[in-house]
# Entry
Amino acid sequence: MKKILYTLLILIFSLEGIGQISYRTRYQKAIFLETFAVSPIFSLNMDHAVNRRMKSFTDIRYGIGFVPGSKNRDRFGWSDNGLSLPMSVTQNFLVNNLKRRIKQRVSLKCKSTPSKISVEWFAEVGAAYTPVFYGISEPRHNFSGIIGLRQQVVFDIPPKPKVVFLKVQYTPKYYKGSFSWNPITGSTNIFGMSLGFSI
# Structure
């Protein structure tokens, strides 16, 4: 029984070590700025990567944003400014060859100093909900789909590797039972971009 237990423990720790190499860029927490998309104008967000696997991970984000009001100025600035609370859940799927990259890093390590920078690309799909609260009007509730592309770059610098990521998203709005797929006839902020880093 003890031999079986020791064997299982060794196997678990071995898999954990492999996993650390396999998804170096799968950070646990990050901060990012987003323009347009589900913000819907501008927002600062917290990002949590969960369910981290070799070829995918689940991303949960929440944040706070600013929505400018009408162009009629009052003595305090823009009238009817809004506060948004963007929230989303997405699944991210690896699209570049991770195994080849790992083998290349290992082979380089045997010959010379390995590269300090690694890159991964992910396809992203999910959904978002963004309530927007205005000063002098009723709050709005925005629902959106998310289709995006994410690039993550890890800088392997001691004592802790840092990750920087860039996201480009297509976010069709859901309204009255259908999505506004057309960026011309639909919402003007149907596309968006984000830039963030791990913490």
In short: The domain at 2-198 is CATH 2.40.160.20 (Porin).
